[in-house]
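Researcher: I'd like a structural prediction for the single chain below. Treat it as a standalone chain; there are no partners to consider.
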Amino acid sequence: MKLVFATHNKNKLKEVRALMPSYIELLSLEDIDCHDDIAETAETIEGNAAIKANFVRDHYGYNCFADDTGLEITALNGEPGVYSARYAGEERSSEANMKKVLEKLADTEDRSARFKTVFALTINEVDTLFEGICDGKITEEPRGEEGFGYDPIFQPKGSDKTFAEMTLAEKGKIGHRGKALRYLVEYLKNSERWVVSSE
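Model: Treating it as a single chain, here is the predicted structure.
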């Protein structure tokens, strides 16, 4: 059963591969020789995920899924949201993004935030969305060496660790991407369309 995950982000690919059932052969964009920089031009997380999945379907002919993720901070009216990857500029520097967030929250008591991931699946011309939410807060300073993006400054609710202080398995159990992916996998398990498409 072959399915393309439309990302060039090796960290995301590692996370998803760790959570994907063994009976699904997960292909990366490199595996299908897709080196395009797919423009994320939508104004929503859902829209950006769908753009990437549909691009692979339309140009390469594979059943595919793609994700987009945003960090939504209460005191910043939901920023950086859909602009999370390039919050501090088009160079997409995680360090600069985190620095900007911490500076904006420097005098703010309310540090509540949430991560939101949406997977867009396109399979046999049928498009489906799967959402995962993880509530938490922004820490006072970065902690931990694992993960990527905003992980060093995001502490999920009910934990005393940031995502960057967790193992891949720990993050996968409670994280936004893991939640959304489990919904997607459950859909595949119960979908007749998947059985037909994988023969």
